[in-house]
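I'd like us to work through together how a protein chain folds, taking it slowly. We need material for that, and I hope you will provide a protein of your own picking. Go ahead whenever you are ready, and we will take it from there:
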Amino acid sequence: MRFVYPMFLFLMLLLGCENKHSNPSKNKDIHKKEIDSAQPKKVIEKEKPKVIEEKPLISRALDSAKTFLLDYGKENTEAKAIIETSFGNIEIQLFKDTPLHRANFIFLAKQHYFDNTLFYRVAPDFVIQGGNNDDTETSIKRSRIGEYLLYPEMRHNHNRGAVSMARYYEDNPRRLSKPYEFFIVIAQKGAHHLDGEHTVFGRVTKGLNVADKISMVKADSQEWPYADVPIKVRVVE
């Protein structure tokens, strides 16, 4: 009996080991399932809507901008606009023999580009310059309309009351005009050193005294007024 009992224990242990490892694939599957269930669920992200950048209204290409504005000018024949300020109104006549610049000014006015821009430069007995603002709204408007330039149309002189377009001086041998910024000559004798350098596209017919008042507001050494002089432009006929 003393040999039978140890033999019996040995057989029981052997059978137990066989049962434990008899189905390794099942045990492996269970273990894997437990690991998988412990992982965070995969989040299915919704597809983000594609942001479509709007094409500017006016192309950067010179000839394309020219065609656009000439066509616009044929449909919009107005030749008078009013610049509204807190100092009073300035009425201007737009010259029809500068069709690109006339159409450009009308287009920007009807797009409400000038609303909340400023007379941001005031130089007594010289000019007041407007059509810009350093706020985000103006930048957004420019992006929507386009960053383009205008062929020059130099047919008029810079007499007192002349309305002329600003331009870049560096790398601009053709004297192309910037479309957004304009200035009004208030110098009693005019600013004839600018003749042939900038395109005059209109003249003040009423409210030149308002321009004179604006030129006298306090400004810093860079001719920026300490207090904003906001403007609004509307086309009347």
